[in-house]
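name: query_chain
kind: protein
chains: 1
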Amino acid sequence: VQLQASGGGLVQPGGSLRLSCAASGINFSIFSVGWYRQAPGKQREFVARISSGGTPTYANSVRGRFTISRENAKKTGFLSMNSLEPEDTAVYYCNILSNWGQGTLVTVSS
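structure:
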């Protein structure tokens, strides 16, 4: 199983980014997909998850600003992030079962 996260970068406060998680070697459509993040000096924390049926769950800190989605035909999950804040700066990881992507860095700074 391989998970390839991409889409991170440097963005100003209030800006937007869309992260992608491309999966291979797994029956993508039957599993939930999660996003986690780890800020410098902090533990990895849950951000959002989408079930196989498309039901989303969000951390309180991102609810209303982030949207998780999936495209099963492309075996890809997405995390659309709006109204980004400096506190969102972290390496973002996608997750399926016990599998993790390599992470993509999001930096929110002016």
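note: The mean pLDDT is 97.
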